[in-house]
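Hi F.,

I've been meaning to write this up properly since the lab meeting, where we talked about keeping a consistent format for the predictions we share between groups. The idea is simple: the sequence comes first, exactly as it goes in, then the structure tokens exactly as they come out, then a line or two of notes. No screenshots and no reformatting. I'm using this chain as the first example so we have something concrete to point to.
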Amino acid sequence: MVRTHNEDCFHIDPALQIFVVADGMGGHSHGEIASRIAVASILEFVRASADHDRTWPVVYDARLQRHSNRLRAAIRIAHDDVLNAIRQNGNLQGMGTTVVGLLLDGETAAIAHVGDSRAYRLRDDQLELLTQDHTWVNEQVVAGHLSAEQARSHPLKNVVTRALGGDSEVMVDVQEREVRAGDLFLLCSDGLTTMLNDAEIRAQLRSEEPLDVVCRGLVRAANARGGLDNVTVLLAKVESAEENPEE
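Output, unedited:
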């Protein structure tokens, strides 16, 4: 409701079971460019690695399953692609993007993120935040210097400490979660979570409406609060742990 253009980007590919949300930063059109590069790069690597275990040039992590390594490598390579775009065009200096991705494989979900775009899971009517924001304010909360309530209104709440296109190296947080039929995964940019708290998000996700209707309802609710940032909401519901999720 405030910004003149949308710096978010997302993609859903039920066949590959990959779901991605990116929130660009940098002002003007730069953030939009960074988020588009990141999403395209992630999808390209996930597609290219579908039939093999290679994650070159990213070292394979034996502690993670194959699809988790693929998602981790895809985000690391996306970071390099954003940096390369900056090196090739000095006008893009300062751009970057957050990203959160979900890659499903059978009974395990791989979730990876950089920045403050989030992943949630609704299971048995309980909403769980799966990611931890890479922000200065969240670090203060973890350290016990700020309460969660203070963090929501802190003037530095939008200062991210990790982003694609930032430092020459980026640390990608990756986790693996058991998947059950009925699980509902939410990926979103912070345009949603700065406007609505977790209880309000949960109330909307418990709706029996189709997922696209629930998505639009969440966006409308965030905009009704002022819509201070771009709002992107992606939902994936697991019909069966053995089959593809339904968009």
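Notes:
The beta strands are 8-13, 18-25, 96-105, 108-114, 118-123, 126-129, 173-178, 184-188, 233-237.
Residues 121 and 185 are 5 Å apart (CA to CA).

If this format works for you, I'll send the rest the same way.

G.
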